[in-house]
TrEMBL record:
PANTHER family: RIBOSOMAL PROTEIN L25/GLN-TRNA SYNTHETASE, ANTI-CODON-BINDING DOMAIN-CONTAINING PROTEIN, RIBOSOMAL PROTEIN L25_GLN-TRNA SYNTHETASE, ANTI-CODON-BINDING DOMAIN-CONTAINING PROTEIN. NCBIfam families: bL25_bact_ctc, PRK05618.1-2, PRK05618.1-5, PRK05943.1. It comes from the Bacteria. Part of the 50S ribosomal subunit; part of the 5S rRNA/L5/L18/L25 subcomplex. Contacts the 5S rRNA. Binds to the 5S rRNA independently of L5 and L18. HAMAP family: Ribosomal_bL25, Ribosomal_bL25_CTC. This is one of the proteins that binds to the 5S RNA in the ribosome where it forms part of the central protuberance. Keywords: Ribonucleoprotein, Ribosomal protein, RNA-binding, rRNA-binding. One of its GO terms (biological process) is translation. InterPro entries: Rbsml_bL25/Gln-tRNA_synth_N, Ribosomal_bL25/Gln-tRNA_synth, Ribosomal_bL25_b-dom, Ribosomal_bL25_C, Ribosomal_bL25_long, Ribosomal_bL25_short, Ribosomal_L25_dom, Ribosomal_uL5_bac-type. This is Large ribosomal subunit protein bL25. One of its GO terms (cellular component) is cytosolic large ribosomal subunit. CDD domains: Ribosomal_L25_TL5_CTC (cd00495). One of its GO terms (molecular function) is structural constituent of ribosome.
Amino acid sequence: MSEFTLSAVLREDEGKGASRRLRRENGVPAVVYGGKAGGNDRKPVSITLKVNELNKALENEAFYNSIITLTIGDKAEQVVLQDLQRHPAKPMVWHADFLRVNKSTKIKAHIPLHFINEDVCVGVKTGGGKIAHHLTSIDVLCSAGDLPEFIEVDMAALNVGDVVYLSGLKLPKGVESVELAHGADHDDAVVSVLAVKGGDDEEAAAE
């Protein structure tokens, strides 16, 4: 798993006006919540992040699904990114939410799918088919320490007419599909190799 660190300062002023001032000063308002201390729920904490540091981290896909070391003042906490709000018209991060975790904390996460060996897929190379992606990410439930950065889908052996469903994905140990937990009728198609309509018949007709 990739390692990420962010630094922040506590934020006392809240509200829309205070948030606007922070953004003008190249800060990003954020909140850290969750976790327990002494058996009691910990209170949410408002913080300010450095926009350049956050933007650099967001360029890495793995940041969205990794445990992050967040340093607030002289204290470090383990967190995961839970929500990110962006400006509707500008390439700006508007607000971020982080959840306190340890490696055993059960969390739900949105994990990207990486489709590998598409260039040597049997159904495309020898069968003349085309690949159709039905999902590009899935929701999973796992401990924070088992959180995958991505899930690979190997396309090499797929032939025309083959379909990979959620149940056919090779999930890491300790990781389960949120959809499949609802029952077999939620076993959605992930990717398939389709026959190309027309093909030689259309070319012959054109001649």
